[in-house]
Design brief:
Blueprint (H helix, E strand, L loop, with lengths): L3 H20 L6 H23 L4 H31 L5
Length: 92
């Protein structure tokens, strides 16, 4: 229980700082930022796969949830990036 409060504090600070940073990004930079977050989500997928393989039921469930959410983020990011790149192709 003593370890929970510092971890919760770090989590809440990360949420606040992340929200503040994302709201300050101009709309022109959102798509390149999403492409960069795909790489971060790929790392999250690897960590989630390692978490799913543990003996603890709670850790496995949280790892599975992280795996699903990170996969959705990666697929969505690639779809948006693909759509943006298609906008710059020459029309036949």
């Amino acid at each position: 229980m003593n370890d929970l409060l510092p971890l919760l504090t770090i989590f809440m600070l990360a949420v606040f700082v992340g929200f503040e940073i994302i709201t300050k990004v101009p709309p022109l930079l959102h798509t390149p930022l999403m492409s960069g977050s795909n790489a971060i989500s790929g790392i999250t997928i690897i960590g989630a796969l390692l978490s799913v393989a543990t003996d603890s039921l709670l850790t496995a469930i949280l790892g599975f949830i992280a795996l699903v959410l990170a996969t959705i983020n990666v697929v969505g990011g690639f779809l948006v990036t693909h759509r943006m790149v298609a906008m710059f192709k020459k029309k036949d």
